Amino acid sequence: MSKLIICYIGQDCEKFIGMSLDSIKDVVDYTIFVDGGSTDDTIRILDKYGFKTISTSDGTFDSTKIFINRPYEQDHKGANGRARNAYLKFIQEHFLNDYCLVLDPDEVVENPQHIKTWIEQAEKQKQLDNIILNPHMRHFIGDFGHEDHTYERHYCPGRFFKITKDLYYDEVEHPVLQCRKNHQRMNVEGFTIWHLAYIDAMFYIKNRYLNHLKNSCPLAGKRKTYIRLLCNS
User: 88 pLDDT exceeds 80?
Assistant: First the structure.
């Protein structure tokens, strides 16, 4: 069966990268992480997960978790595109005709087993050769008045694909996978990418807001009831 390669680019992502790696650990064959020059605990966490730096001389590697150090170019608006081309060039060289799922360090995958199932079915039917797939994505952001802090899911373009020589990223800040040949783009069901960005800030603000209500509520004897009613309204 073909391999599944998970590719990341990131910088200073200590809060979520462990959660992201754990979410796909049962289905991934190789993981590539392109680091933009982290100064927090990201490198230590990746080292704990077994990531090893590839040899810069010949590009060889002896691990299923591969670390590529590529300092972020602050003055170049296409830095993200260049960083994504760094992992794309690597997998085109070493994993041609296998399959790649692109994740950000602050994303986790729901129902990851469906990724392998989808690849198995596609291999049998020879469907993935000219298709770039768009998985579902949902965001953990919302207002203070609801328990489900999400927006409706949408499709995330170009995140799941068969690795061919024709693929590339434009050198822009938020690049979408492109192909030099006519590739069909298709939405894929079965698994969902959850985007966790700003969730820590959201809960920090929510807690400050609730503490403010608790300390300044005019209904001193009924504060809990007042807060519950307000937050559920």
Answer: yes
